[in-house]
Structures are given as C-alpha cells and as structure tokens.
Amino acid sequence: xxxxxxxxxxxxxxxxxxxxxxxxxxxxxxxxxxxxxxxxxxxxxxxxxxxxxxxxxxxxxxxxxxxxxxxxxxxxxxxxxxxxxxxxxxxxxxxxxxxxxxxxxxxxxxxxxxxxxxxxxxxxxxxxxxxxxxxxxxxxxxxxxxxxxxxxxxxxxxxxxxxxxxxxxxxxxxxxxxxxxxxxxxxxxxxxxxxx
Length: 196
Hints:
Elements: H1 13-35, H2 42-49, H3 53-59, H4 63-86, H5 93-104, H6 108-120, H7 122-139, H8 148-167, H9 169-172, H10 178-191
C-alpha cells in the first residue's frame, strides 16, 4: 500500500510524531505565557496537550529543553514582526510603533520569565543569544544600511521600548509615554531602508 492509498483512519506515523511534538510545544508556550517558567511543570504541559505526563519525556529531556523550543517558535514570530516593519507600509512609523507595543502585550509574562531563566540557565541563555544573532543575520540583507552594532542596538531598543510601553512602566510613573513611543517610532524608521 502506498502513502496515497492508505486505508481511511490510518494515520501517517510521521504526521503523528510531528503532531505530538507540536502539541507539546504549543501547550508549553501557553503554560509559559500564563504561568512563567517557575510556575510551569512538565505534567501540566503534557495534560494541556492532551497526553499522559510520561509522553513529555519521550520528546524533551526537561522543562528547559521545551522552553528552548518555545523560544525558537517565538523567535520566528519575532522575525516575522521585524520583516513586517521593514516592508512598504501605509502606516506611519508612529502607527508601527503602536502596533509593536500591542504585539508585545500577550508575551509580557513569557518575556519576564525568559529574562529570569537566561540568568539561571546557561543553556537557555546560549539559545537566546543564538536566536538574536540569527535574527540579526536574517535581517542583515534588508538592513545593510546599518552596521552590525547599530542593527543590534536598534533591535534591542525596539524590543525594550515596546516592552516598557506594553507593561505600562511610564504610566506607573505618571507620564504619558508619548516621547518614548516617538523614540520607538524613530528606531523603527532607522531600521527601515531608505524608501521603504
């Protein structure tokens, strides 16, 4: 029997394998976003994905390993966001800055715990550093007008300012945040090639 003429109801083992891993990663992402690294355990990840707890360990050695995989997924979303900032837009840089802040809101808990984990776990810190380096490399062709250090600075500023505004840090201080939003817009403008 070839792949194309399998009997109905017989799943392709390769697809089942990929689906199990994907469901565990998606469940882990949900747990990390909602409860952070410390507040998440592997049993809850497995249950959220619809599996028995031991299934988790068929795919990942520990919580840090699945966290690293979640980080890869998140980095792909981050890359997509930056690519959207680089393309031609009807939106102004200020409107793009507002969109960056809104995009950051769902990930505030995850990012808070990401910082904590990178301080505690050298392997996760290395994965995060590799992800950032890969982001710079992937964005390089579209940001050739920026030297590598300038690109790194710009990316980190966009990330930091978006997070600060999404958390409401400036509102907590009784200030509007309009100047910070404008600074974020300026960094987005600097990231974009001339004419984009």
